[in-house]
Structures are given as structure tokens and as C-alpha cells.
Amino acid sequence: MLVGTVRVLTTARGEGRRIFTDLGAAEYRYELSINEVVGDEQSAARSSYRLPITMSDAVRARAEHLLVDGQRIALLGPLGMEEYYDQRFQRDAYDAGRRTWDIRIDVLGVQEIGDDVPDMAWVQLEGEVVDRARIYARQYGDRRTLVEHYAGVTLRYREVLAGAYGMAVRPVVKSIPVEVLVTAEEEVIPNSDALLRPGNKVRIEGRLSPATFRLPRAALEDATVQTALERTRAQFETRNADLSQRAEAARQQRQAAQERAQREGRQATQAPASRQQPLNAEALERQIARAQQRLLTGRRVRVEVGYIELLHGTAATRDERSRLLAEADERRRTRPARRPAAPPLPDSELRAEAQDRDTVEAMLLAEGEDDGDAGTDESTPAPAEAEPPSSPPGPLRPRRARPPRSTDPGDEPMAL
After folding, report:
1. How far apart are the C-alpha atoms of 206 and 282, rounded to whole Å?
2. Does the predicted TM-score (pTM) go above 0.85?
3. b/e for 102-135, b at 16 or more Cβ within 10 A?
4. Radius of gyration, alpha carbons of the chain
5. Which of 57, 67, 98, 361 sees the fewest Cβ atoms within 10 Å?
6. What are 202-245's pLDDT values in tens digits?
7. 233 and 292 in contact (C-beta within 8 Å)?
């Protein structure tokens, strides 16, 4: 359940912005501004953010009178993990982009809410832990030692839901990644050890928390990411060069108009200056750097767990939790070993020479075997085998040895 203030996204013509899914369904886009305040008598914490919301045609038709700018509403529906491809990382026209994911809510109901209900992003899930916990370290403050650890697991829930008509039912299987704050000394969130053992069935309550993230260092070395960064630089440089050419053409036109006005003895009219002016080298580099930073920075919605109830299974022990955190710290301190660079291939000319030598050697060996089958004189010493020439390393293309030609003069190829 999400409670906040709705903002309608519109096109340039003032119509509601919509997208079409791969199956042809139309979905309208909105944004929900949430100003959440949590706390007690001693302390409080505030978080403000906007969540992108998509709504189907049927839901929008029922609640169109509530979907206006500034209206406080409550959205109800199940959560789901949406996988999509980031088109900013397309390598060519046939590439879908970089595969990524995010958590979204399938809006099934829209209700008007009063001022007595605060803003919130409340989540309740019940499912099975399907994987081993992954430890994420997040730094708080200016010191590298101020690090908090979050354990991330995936909850899978399966339900058999009744159909809209008839006796048929529909099985629904979904998986949602969740995170919980953990420490080696104690359980910060009660019963959080129940999430650290795969196979446990739990019921949790928490909140949605959007967060920004940066692509890891390993992803920066990917050819797809490097191509996207270079394409971004090329787009800005090309656009700035076009603006420079337009500005130079406009300057020449103004100068020609002034000279013509002076010859005719009248006052030249000033043409309106263009809004977009070319940037100097320093300003262009700053703009390119900001665009590349936006490309490397993403936004993702997380599910922060605040209540855990163990329904089936056994919670992890304190030693298992401490060992899990220690292994994560050891992996973070140890840099991954880089793969050795592949040896360079030999030059094409050297490779062709080596292939020719191997072909000649194979033909000589084949002729020697044929002579040996025909019979040799034991009194005649066999010629010393020639030392094969050395060939450069690298992949060589094998060639088939030619069969010996027939000595019969009447043996001619068959006419086709």
C-alpha cells in the first residue's frame, strides 16, 4: 500500500503519457510523491522520494476523477520484479541493451485518503527463502570504518488463485529481493536470522526505499558500457560542432547584411540570436562528464525488512551470521584476480608461410610412405630425415595432402 500525492505525466499536447507493452496493452504513467516520517517519542527520521507508477487502462477508467495533480491517494496492489533492457547501452540497431531489473507495483485499486493517514510505502510478503544471503556493505559518514551490512535474499511465493469464471485456477509464482540490516554482535531486527537460511518460510513487513547505485568497477570495463560512453561523447561533440557551424553561418549572414545596409545607406536590422550557442572546450567537457555520470548511475527500489516472523524452518545461529559477514569482508578486501591477456596472434604473412611449410612437409611424408609400401632395398641406406623447419606459435589451418597422380598416360578425367 502506497500513500502519497499523485503527479500526472503529460505529453506536449497535454494528454496523459502512456506506453504500450510487448503484448499490446496500454499503460499510463504517473508519479507518486511520498514524504514518509517514522519515529517515536525519542527520535524520528524522514525520507522523501518519488516512485514511478504505471496504471492499466481499466484501473485508470475507474479512478480517473482521483488522478489529478496534488490529490492524495492510496494505491493498492501486489509487488513484482520487472526485468527490462536499458536502451542507453545499445551497441547497434539489433541490440536490446543492458539487462537490468527493478521492483514495481501492479496497481489494482485507487482510493482517496484523508489527512489523518500519513504517507507510507508499506509492504507485506510471505514466502520462502530460496538462496544464500548476499552481504552488501554501505558506508555512512566520511570514514571508511563506518560501514553497515545488509543481508539480501530472494523471497519466492507461490499462490493458486481462482479464475474470474469457471473452475480453472491460475498458479502465480513471483520472486522479490529483500534486504535486512545485520551485525555480527546482535540481531538489530528481531528474528532476522530466519532470513539467513535457505528453505525457511517467513512472513515479513517492511517498506519500499528507492536508492541510487553506480555500476560496479567490473561493469565499467565491459565493452558495452565503454561503447555507450564513447557514443555519449561523440553525440555531444557532434552537436557542439553543428552549433558552431550554425553560429559561424549566422555571423557571416549578419556581416553581409550590415555591409549591404551600409552601401544602401540604411540601418541594418538585428536578427534575433539563437537560443543554443556552442560551448567552449571546458564547458563541453563538463557537460560530457555529467552525461556520462548519469549514464553510469541508476535508480532501484529496495524492500527494507522491519518485521520478520518465522513460519517454517530453523533460524541461523550467531556463528553462521558472523561467518557470513567475515566472508563478505574478506571478499571485499581481496581484489579479484584479473584474467591473463590472450597471447597475440602471429602476423598473417608469417601464419601463411607456416601453413605452406606444413603443407609441403605433409606431402613429403605422404610420398615417403608410398615409396615404403612399394619396397625398398635394404642395402641402400635410407636418406637422413630433414629437420622440420620451426614455425611460429599460433593456430594453424590444416591442409589435406594431395594423392599421388596416376602414371597411366590413358588415365584422363571423365568428360562431364
Report:
1. 47
2. no
3. bbbbebeebeebeeeeebbbebebebbbeeebeb
4. 36
5. 57
6. 999 999 988 888 888 777 888 888 888 998 999 999 999 998 89
7. yes
